[in-house]
# Entry
Amino acid sequence: MDGLPLISICIPAFERTPYLKRLLDSIEIQSFRDFEIVITDDSPGREVQTLAAEHVLNPCIRYFKNLQTLGSPENWNESIRKSRGPWIKIMHDDDWFRESDSLKIFAEATQTARSSFYFSGYTNVFTSGAEQEIKINRFQLDRIKKNPEILLAANRIGPPSVVIFKRDEAVQFDPRLQWLVDIDFYIRYLKKNPSAEWIEANLVRIGISVSQVTQRSFGKPTIEIPERFLLNEKLDPQSSKYLPIFDSWWRFIRNLSIKDLAQINGSGYTGNIPPFVAAMIKTQTRIPEILLKNGFSSKFFMFLHYLRTKGPS
# Structure
């Protein structure tokens, strides 16, 4: 890797040049300089190309115009494929580094040799101007290390912009997914390359807007249902016996108001439906809606169902 940058900052871009400029400006002030910037442009126009050519960072930028629109997340994969560094730092174009030393702290973590996957604290920044600081505790981190599939219950890592990982050509983002694409990648990467390490510093700001794929996908059965089952096909068949994951399935069925197997097939998923899912749907249809929608009583019924079907182990 002599002569190559330590870190490849991979930016899968699509229009939204004001956001992209904000990201590039945050990179320009970084105290750590051993990096390259790879921009793979999915935009129909030339606005991203113009910004890349005119920005002060141009000497560090390797710009690629996709010959055809790849979409998310295949454009993420393309950006990684075009990169050269041993460490990959994906940055979505609407996210940006919080401080001038953010990249330096990421880089220092990569030199500790504790892991090939690090993630940091971050701040969600909403279009209203409101902010939400996100971090995890050691108990949550230990659970991820012990069993990455716990991320299906709750994504405690965060979006890809808060992660830096060592290049692994064998693990890519699944282009069939939108809603669960990051969780799916984390689980597969960490099962192959254990274990995750958390950088406690808050290093990245995450822009939250309705234009994001994840925001547009939220609550849509035709997206969430097929993706949930596609991801489940990759998991350990015994993972559903783990109570947090079992509970996440319960909430998934409840929140999307799935009343029968026909709804799952009608969503576009035609694969195998695990028996425990069918049993869970049947149980929920027997519970009054007012109790099912109440967090406390729903949790109570979930646990009873868990004891009856899985046992306490």
Notes: Residues 295-309 form the longest helix (15 residues). The chain is about 40% helix and 20% strand.
